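Researcher: Please predict.
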Amino acid sequence: MAIYVVMEPPGRGESVDTTFIRDGFAWLGFLVPPLWLAWHRLWVEAALAFVAMGLLSMLGERLDLETAGSLLSFLVMLFVGLEGQGLRIAALRRRGWHEWGVVEADRRAHADIRYVLEAAADSDAQTPAQRIVPDAAHARPAQMGLALGLNHIPGKP
């Protein structure tokens, strides 16, 4: 079974246009990182991946280290394959979308059905949804004190 992160748009009304992002390795993101990133409208990330892969290949060719340049380009491909879905979630969060939760299903169509059923049950209960993907803004302590080594106690100077 696959796990899908359900993202809801900002200011949702009667018709909810949700996005389901499958959590896992992005094979197309691994094989063709710049194209996969551009397909998902991650323009800055696509440009950075393209430039990084090009520079690493040229550097390896110029230094007569073709194998090292290829391996470094492979690392960029591996990063996009592993973290591509997380980059999509982060981009949607920057655009104001929020996480509804996660749904476990075999296919995307089944995830959509489970989401509709669980959303209907949640609307009846009127309980706020928990954040599934943590936000860095909530991770900071409210008050920063003096920290010496590993003996820091938040909130105490």
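Model: The longest strand covers residues 98-105.
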